[in-house]
Amino acid sequence: MFNDPLAAALAKILNAEKVGKREVLIKPASSIIKRILSIMNEQGYVGSFEEADDGKGGVLKVNLLGNINKCGVIKPRFSTAKHEFEKWEKRYLPAKDFGIIVVSTPQGLVTHNLAKDKQTGGRLIAYCY
Q: Span 74-128: which CATH code?
């Protein structure tokens, strides 16, 4: 069993993107992975995805667009205040306004740009560019 299913899922997506595959199967399917994939879909990094039940925790079939340069989880899950996002952007993203950081806020999982607009902090979960 995996220690971190989210890290395994993002690594599988990144490896499939690097070799040029058009779709990838992610096991097991969790609500956090689905929410992060929907955020990446809204931002244009992955295509649509669908869930199938295999009797062992579910499978997500993700269509890839070839738009991901790098993605991964942020460990440890750093806490951040609403005015500290620029520091984390410099650490995890290659340039200003390029890529996203997924943040867990009291309003749910959102991108760091939306968290800045809502004037809220949270915990850093993943990044993608």
A: 3.30.1490.10
CATH hierarchy code of domain 5-64 = 3.30.1370.30
Please tell me the distance from the alpha carbon of residue 37 to that of residue 41, in angstroms, as a whole number: 6
Which tens digit of pLDDT belongs to each residue from 21-79?
999 999 999 999 999 999 999 999 999 999 999 888 899 999 999 999 999 999 999 99
- Domain boundaries defined on the chain: 5-64, 74-128
| Total-model pTM | 0.93
